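Lab manual, section 2.4: Encoding a predicted structure.

Procedure: take the sequence of the chain (398 residues), apply the prediction step described in section 2.3, and record the output as structure tokens. A sample record is shown.
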Amino acid sequence: MAQQLPAMFAQLKYVCFSWPNTQLLKRDPIARTWFKTHSTITTLPSALGGWPLILYEAVSTSTQGVPELFLSQQQCDSLINSLAELMGPSRARASWRDSAWLKREALIRSSAQAGGIQVRVFRSQAELEARFAELKDGDDWAATKTHWRELKRAQEVFLWLGSGATKRPALGEPKFVAVDIETWEQDHALVTEVGVASLRYLQSGKVVTEARHLVLQENSDKRNGRYCPDARDYFQLGQTVTLPRQRLARELHDTLFPSDDLAGPIILLLHDHRSDSKSLASLDVDLNKYERNPLLPPPDSPLYNPPNPSGAVPDPPPCFLLDTQRLFSGFSRRKRQSRLEDACRALGIVLPGNEPIAYHNSGNDAWVTLQVFLRLMQAPIGETADEVKPAGWTPGGR
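Recorded output:
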């Protein structure tokens, strides 16, 4: 059987999703048109001669044991030659990444447990798309096991900290703080708005929540609206406050690094932390003081309540950072990055009175980020990462 198989293969998802985004071609209008008519899930079959379409199902070393679909080198060369008729052979070949090729022998070895390389004959678009979706579910499921574990640990810690204020006074009053930052669309180094939403468990047994919308005075003339929606004037949970940079930075610092005697562990929540982390740093917020391991320490860890010798100056409360986008990935079992709006829609989060949420107002976005977190903390996700498998997926596709 091995002698009848092609010598080289390329992933179908590379041909349809990565190749069109090659730096050399993705801004070229001629190339974009060609890819739409030759290299999508719906146009590829016609470009390769129509039905039936022969593809290959195998496991590569990059898919965590989950099968996926491959094209032969001959099929890929046919596509490259077709592109070369428009772009020229050297440019078309340069757009293809050499590392996309996988040798037959390596693919057979990595696919051994799944029965080796399987020849798949698809006779309709519906059949192809159904199998592609099944395999993608399996890939997402395997790739998000880590995110599931992070979510499971966060649920355990949330429950433990929530009861800690009344049961373990030495722990202090735990606080969960969501922050969202809006920047100017023409220069993302310029912060225009900061949203803060928090939940604190008091030792009295009460739970205190707050949502704030702060506008940076020095940049208040910088408005979005061309590339990013402008919702600055639509804070739906209170009054907007405009502050000079120094005062705003101080407010943030006092929120994220409280100095009161009852302050307990603080968990900072960001939805896709990368850009907001940079913006916080520009406002002199030192996130290096926050533990960034997405897997929180287990309940009862001394990290939540470090020992403090009698008479010593109290240490600042321990700080941890969580990304709600990663936690939502652990819930949805989809490895793609989900927008805040998508997470809210999936979790059924709405404003009081079912008023539509004005996203891209940092105060509203901070509040819904906190709500996403709270909803995820109560979501049933099973006891193990493999308790429920995606519908229609079986290892090896058999």
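Check your result against the sample. The domain at 147-377 is CATH 3.30.420.10 (Nucleotidyltransferase; domain 5).
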